[in-house]
Amino acid sequence: MTEVPTPVVPDLDFPLSRRGDTVPAECAWLRRKRPVARVRTMTGDLAWLVSTHELATRVLQDDTFSMLRVGEAGAPSQYAPTFPVELRNSMARFSDDGLRGAIMKAVSPPVVAASADGMRRRADELIDALVADGPPLDFKQHFTDPYTVSVMCAVLGLPDTDWRSMLACLDITIMTAPEPFEGARANWDKGIARMTTRLREPGAVRAAGLLGSLARLREADSADPVPDDVLAMALHTLFEAGAASAATFLLHATLLLMCHPEQADALRDHPEHLGTAVEELLRHNLSIGDGLPRIATRDIRLGDADIKEGDLVLVLVEGANHDPTAFTSPERLDLRRTPNPHLSFGAGSHYCPATTLARAHADIALEAVLRRLPDLRLAIPVEQLNWRTGWIKRTCERLPVLW
């Protein structure tokens, strides 16, 4: 008689709450009781959720847990893929010397440093405009979104002509859902078409940033040329990931400072501590939301769990970043906290390569906000913020402010 396997009962469903102003209550329970928990994702797949700082760091640093295999056909997933399946294999071309070198150069410290003055000008221009408009207004629409698009366009060499249409080319693509849907593919195609047009423009080879590098790579005489769709995907993906992550973090950072005015005042009086403050804002904010995914490449013991090859492992960043074994009083925002081994940029071989850009983006924007808008505050109770559902980041739909 064939033995019927016992069905796995997950500890909870994932993702957790989409609110970005309160650490999900499950985090503390998970760290204490289920540091490597069994969860069911929105696609119905089973996954392992890692919530302590120690184990999360191990997953992110150990090549046993692969990020590349997350995109393989048939792999368990957090949510349905929203870009065309046939382009998954093209991701392998990102490791080509020319393409990878162009991408890394685009977000390198020298490029970011050369863009700093432009970032400052744009921040001040946007604050000039919102001050002229007068309160109340939506800080997301009037500052964090247009500022971030401008920064990304400057670094990537893209024309900054219409930030709304730029963001519209990624908004639906990075929604999360249990099944693919038509709008996601249409949104992806729109973004790729826009980038392909830019790459093929006659003057693209003279453009700055990644656009120029990829256009020159496209024109180079090669026995194995990189297809246009892969070049466009590299440009679109870097813009998409950078804009979504940076704009959402800046929104969270601004909200945190408004909710802790005494710390904002202290930072305004001592701007030399801004770098340390940004690290704490990175640790404390909840923008990541859906966990960092990896696929186990072999059977391995992790904590009290036996992970099998092919299993999906999710790092709960908000759990690790609020772990009291790694951070004293983790629930407290401490803008002087040091050391601060947060995992908001990941760790190991897949540590985010755009960390210099992300930090400069936030440093410059927050310095301008603290200097120019000393009385910035929420226009509505924090409990009335409307947190978006079905999106890859935790973000509020708008951030109404006074000053």
Task: Determine the number of helices (DSSP H or I, runs of at least 4 residues).
Answer: 13
Helix content: 40-55%
Helix vs. strand class: alpha+beta
What is the CATH topology classification name? Cytochrome p450
Can you give the mean pLDDT?
A: 92
Shape type: globular
Order of helices and strands: EHEEHEHHEHHHHHHHEEEEHHEE
Q: Please report the first level of CATH classification, the CATH class.
A: Mainly Alpha
Low-confidence stretches: none
Instruction: Compute the separation of the termini in Å.
Output: 73 Å
Strand content: 5-15%
Q: Report the count of strand segments.
A: 11
* Adjacency order of strands in the biggest sheet: 1-2-3-9-6-4
Strand count, sense and barrel status of the largest sheet are: 6 strands, mixed
Protein name: Cytochrome
InterPro entries: Cyt_P450, Cyt_P450_B, Cyt_P450_CS, Cyt_P450_sf
Keywords: Heme, Iron, Metal-binding, Monooxygenase, Oxidoreductase
Organism: Streptomyces tsukubensis
How would the blueprint of this fold be written?
Blueprint lengths: L11 E2 L12 H8 L2 E5 L5 E5 L2 H9 L3 E2 L30 H10 L2 H25 L3 E2 H18 L6 H6 L13 H19 L8 H11 L8 H32 L1 H9 L4 H11 L7 E5 L3 E3 L2 E3 L4 E4 L1 H4 L34 H18 L4 E2 L21 E3 L1
Parallel strand pairs: 1-2, 3-9
Antiparallel strand pairs: 2-3, 4-6, 5-11, 6-9, 7-8, 10-11
Helix pairs in contact: 3-8, 4-5, 4-13, 5-9, 7-9, 9-13, 11-13
Q: Any overview of this molecule?
A:
This protein has 403 residues and is an alpha+beta fold. The chain has one domain (12-402): Cytochrome p450, CATH 1.10.630. The chain contains 13 helices and eleven strands. It has helices at 26-33, 53-61, 97-106, 109-133, 139-156, 163-168, 182-200, 209-219, 228-259, 261-269, 274-284, 317-320, 355-372, and strands at 12-13, 36-40, 46-50, 65-66, 137-138, 292-296, 300-302, 305-307, 312-315, 377-378, 400-402. Strands 1-2-3-9-6-4 form a six-stranded mixed β-sheet. It has a three-stranded antiparallel β-sheet with strand order 5-11-10. A two-stranded antiparallel sheet has the order 7-8. α4 (109-133) packs antiparallel against α5, α4 runs parallel beside α13 (355-372) and α7 crosses α9 (228-259). The protein is globular, with a radius of gyration of 21 Å. 43% of the residues are buried.
